[in-house]
Amino acid sequence: MFIAVYRWMVKPGMEDRFVKAWHRGTLSITRIYGSFGSRMHRNEDGSFIGYAQWPSRAAWEVAERNHFKHDDEEAARDFQESLEEHGTLYLMEVLDDLLLHRGKDWP
């Protein structure tokens, strides 16, 4: 399994728009590219941190080469328009996994 960790700084007042766009975009990316989904976190400095899980680095690279393009154009636009800056913090292979996972009915 492969993990990508991202950091986003969002324009003031656009936080809700960003989170909703991230949610919808992540569902689309999961469906199109076969990721295992993602988690969104709010850091104490106000930035947003996303933790995305992939079946392999190769699967992530396909999505990355396509700039994570997906079919929810409104979500993609809202996501981009709400950003001040963004970047990938870490790309990592999973060695062990003790997280509890949601049931089959997710999302």
Give an overview in words.
The protein is α+β, with helices and mostly antiparallel strands and 107 residues long. It has a single domain (2-93), classed as 2-Layer Sandwich (Alpha-Beta Plaits). Helix content is 36%, strand content 30%. It has helices at 15-33, 57-65, 73-82; strands at residues 2-10, 38-42, 48-54, 83-93. It has a four-stranded antiparallel sheet. The chain is globular. The mean pLDDT is 93.
What's the layout of helices and strands?
Layout: E1 2-10, H1 15-33, E2 38-42, E3 48-54, H2 57-65, H3 73-82, E4 83-93
Tag the structure with descriptive keywords.
single chain; 107 residues; alpha+beta; 4-stranded antiparallel beta sheet; 3 helices; globular
Mean pLDDT over the residues: 93
Largest sheet: 4 strands, antiparallel
General form: globular
Low-confidence stretches: none
Percent helix: 25-40%
Radius of gyration: 14 Å
CATH topology: Alpha-Beta Plaits
What's the short version?
The protein is α+β, with helices and mostly antiparallel strands. 36% of the residues lie in helices and 30% in strands. It has one domain (2-93): 2-Layer Sandwich (Alpha-Beta Plaits), CATH 3.30.70.100.
